[in-house]
Specification:
single chain, 276 residues, alpha/beta, 9 helices, globular, binds NADP nicotinamide-adenine-dinucleotide phosphate, SDR_fam, carbonyl reductase (NADPH) activity, carbonyl reductase (NADPH), phosphoprotein
Amino acid sequence: MSNVPVAVVTGSNKGIGLAIVRALCKQFPGDVYLTSRDPDRGQAAVAQLQQEGLKPLFHQLDIDDPQSIRALRDFLKEKYGGLNVLVNNAGIAFKVNDTAPFAVQAEVTLKTNFFGTRNVCTELLPLIKPYGRVVNVSSMASNSALKGCSPELQQKFRSDTITEEELVQLMTKFVEDTKKNIHQKEGWPNTAYGVSKIGVTVLSRIQARLLNEQRKGDHILLNACCPGWVRTDMAGPKATKSPEEGAETPVYLALLPSSADAPHGQFVSDKTVRPW
Ligand SMILES: NC(=O)c1ccc[n+]([C@@H]2O[C@H](COP(=O)([O-])OP(=O)(O)OC[C@H]3O[C@@H](n4cnc5c(N)ncnc54)[C@H](OP(=O)(O)O)[C@@H]3O)[C@@H](O)[C@H]2O)c1
């Protein structure tokens, strides 16, 4: 088994994820895994970084596929006995002009951004080694979507005692409510992406709390963040930040020094803790 520290970035064949891998290859003292649901796209991205003189490693990972997640988990367990840094970056967003019915957009978006991310955490968080760092890439869209929720929903999402099961029930209810076209009556905002990222931010708060309760002595720091508005296939060419600039806050959180005890359980943008 290797004693080398290991970092994994989900959805890193392009965009912000690729920029995070590039930065980690330069700054993280260990093996850095570029992962992609499509091995060809992943290997092409690895080749691109190799041309820049960097040495990322590759593993397939489709966060929608529980078997793919378990294969990565088993690989990390066997080769490294765990994991030091996990960046949950993979995500999707329908384009504004997409004509798919809202209920379909809700189901598909929540499936990857919330349920897929949660499934990765369920399998990989138990592998995180002492002083490990976990970064869940959420979005400022989660904050604006929260403000668009009914006061009752806002209270639940801001609660310091909400459980993961309760969060899963709420995310499931959102998808069901969109199918019945009652989501707005039920207090939800009209944004599937925003609600999926509420899920990611609240999940991060819950996971940080559980780490405090169950693994306090392990000094693991887990946060949600927004990369900013970044020029990628998702956000388009008019966005204000380059992918490298978008990677700065996730990389800062992934490389928090072992002496740090904060931030933890926070929502961070531009390296600054934001109110939730
Ligand atoms: N760009 C922004 O302005 C912005 C702002 C706030 C937050 N974010 C968040 O930042 C993250 C990265 O976004 P981006 O702008 O870099 O988007 P992007 O260029 O569209 O890249 C998204 C990445 O996620 C991967 N992915 C999607 N579904 C996946 C799945 N089921 N399993 C594994 N990988 C999957 C994609 O793989 P494929 O190539 O196979 O599709 C791609 O590598 C997302 O979580 C996004 O919500 C972005």
